[in-house]
Amino acid sequence: LACVRAYERACGGVHVCVYGYVYMYVHVCCFQADCVFFSPPWGGPSYLGADQYDLYTMLPLDITRLFAIAKDVTPNIAFYAPRNTSIKQFAELAALVPSRVDVEQNFLNGKLKVLVAYFGELVDYSPALEEADEHAAGGDES
After folding, report:
1. With contact defined as beta carbons under 8 Å apart, do 112 and 105 qualify?
2. End-to-end Cα separation, the chain, in angstroms
C-alpha cells in the first residue's frame, strides 16, 4: 500500500484502488514505454465452449478502458488473446488507438492456440504490404 501511495503522490494525487486497471493507471501514468503487452485473464476455461470470444462481455475487465489507459503510455500495443476472439473487435480497438491492426495466429503442433493483435508501430507498414492492401481493396493503379 505504501508503494501505491507513492505512485499516487508522483502522479499528482490521483485516487487509486489497490487492484484492477485503476491501480495499473496509477502505476503507468507517469511513464512512457516503447510498447505495452497485454495478456489479460480470459475468464477461465469456459471461453473454450464459445463459438467466438467477445472481448467486451467475456473479458473480466473493461477492454475499452484498458486500451484508453495503454494509449496514454504508447500507441504500440500487443494483445495476447484466445484463438476464437473476434477479428472485428480487434479492428474496433484499433480505432481507439488509432491504428491499423495486424493479427497473428500462433500454432502449436498444427493447432491454432492463440491470437496476438498488434497496434501502432508494431504493425508492419512495409511498401510491399501497402501494395498488397491496395490490390486487395481494388485500388491497384497499374
Report:
1. yes
2. 63
3-state secondary structure labels for all residues of 68-92: HHHHHHCCCEEEEEECCECHHHHHH
pTM greater than 0.70: no
* Contact by Cβ (8 Å): 61, 50: no
For the beta carbon of residue 4, count every other beta carbon within 10 angstroms. 14
Residue 23 to residue 26: CA distance in whole angstroms: 5
| Cell numbers found for residue 26 | 496509477
Report how far residue 83's alpha carbon sits from residue 53's, in angstroms, rounded to the nearest whole number: 8
The answer to whether residue 9 scores a pLDDT higher than 70 is: no
Q: Cβ-count burial of 93 within 10 angstroms (0-12 exposed, 13-18 middle, 19+ buried)?
A: buried
| pLDDT recorded at residue 21 | 46
**Residue range 19-59, pLDDT digits in tens:** 444 444 445 555 677 888 888 877 777 777 888 988 888 87
CA dist 112 and 121 (Å) reads 25
- The pLDDT value recorded for residue 112 is 93
